[in-house]
Amino acid sequence: MKRGDLLIYLFSASMLLFSFLLYLLLYSGLGFDQHIESVVVEYKKQVYAKIPLPSPERTIDINGPWGVIMLDLNGYKVRVNPFSPLYCPDKICMRQGWISKPPETIVCLPNRIIIYYQGGKYIDGLTY
Ligand SMILES: [Zn+2]
């Protein structure tokens, strides 16, 4: 009885560990394989700003005709800082939170701003 319980416990523990390691492996593997070059801020279908990635953890202000967007950067992760000045009426772009890989995008309809990744498998596949 006791021995069986221990085996089941060990088995589930090792499965848990295994899936965790697999996750780490896949996650880091994908990160290396993506070749994300930069994150692009497009305004009215024109490239307004391009920030090379990966970036250290920081917040940058992008000034434009719409006001100021505060972008949070951390490695390949990007988000609109939820404490940005009230430049956006619907705030959907701020509520969306972090994006971390293509083809994820942040769209701000009221300001006609699109934030997307340049490089990466998905975009390359579209380009060629
Ligand atoms: Zn918005």
Number of helices: 3
Q: If strands are numbered along the chain, what order do they take across the biggest sheet?
A: 2-1-7-6
Question: How many beta-strand segments?
Answer: 7
Instruction: Give me the secondary-structure category.
Output: alpha+beta
Count of spatially separate domains: 2
CATH fold name of the largest domain, please? Answer: mini-chromosome maintenance (MCM) complex, domain 2
SSE sequence, one letter per element: HEEEEEHEEH
Mean pLDDT across residues:
84
Largest sheet data: 4 strands, antiparallel
Based on CA atoms alone, the radius of gyration comes out at: 20 Å
InterPro entries: NusG_2_sf
Organism: Candidatus Hakubella thermalkaliphila
Protein name: NusG domain-containing protein
Pfam families: NusG_II
